[in-house]
Amino acid sequence: MEKIGKYLEQIGNFLITRKKCILYLDLNDYSIGDNLIFDEEANYIWLKSLISKIEFDEISFDLILDYPVNIFVEKYEIEAKKQIKLFFSEDRNMLETVLESEDIKKQTLYLERLLGGKELFKDVDHFFLKIFNLFSTISDMDSVHLEVLISNVLRDKRDFSIPARLGKTFDPKLINIKDIVFQQNTFLSSLNFENINKAIATSLISDDVGKDKTILEKTLINEIIPVEADEKE
What we know:
Layout: E1 8-11, E2 14-17, E3 21-26, E4 36-39, E5 44-47, E6 50-55, E7 60-65, E8 69-72, E9 75-79, E10 83-88, E11 93-97, H1 101-115, H2 124-136, H3 143-153, E12 154-156, E13 159-163, E14 172-174, H4 177-184, H5 187-191, H6 196-205, H7 215-220, H8 229-232
Antiparallel strand pairs: 1-2, 2-11, 3-6, 3-10, 4-5, 5-8, 6-7, 8-11, 9-10, 12-13, 12-14
């Protein structure tokens, strides 16, 4: 497939066309006034999220953005109240992300701090509420997913190789999730991660270098996993 950069370029919060194109909005995906507002005087369309198809002379593909955008209207057609066709010439601002995307940026930065073991919290209840309040504003994520995330980044202070909930006493510590692989896995698992030097150093002092390989490790070294007889039938 040809590189998308030949056709579209992102500059800051803007998406720029590099060749003329047509953007198709299926009105079956939108309810006017709720998740689509067409301001003809200001020549823009606001969308709560973008579900569209974009077509160039040589290529066409779906263009989907799961956050609010403003589309700058250059020329358009509405076909039987079922579809909006937006025409763009080359080197034009096609759309921009709007202020709500700041919530996404805030969410992303928080997640980076969380996975990096750098977030401050009073206790686990406070920790959960902070995450829930942040993610529930722009996501329908179920609370059980947050619980799974929290249970993995909160490790047992006495043994980082296990989640805090599995410790003899509940004594959690938030650590960098990238370090967990060096606490609980074998040399091969660690070596397949980002920090090769740390993987080697860990293997030299580990008591578990010789333990059985996991399925992922067998896949890594292309070791054939035998198929049981009843599975062959």
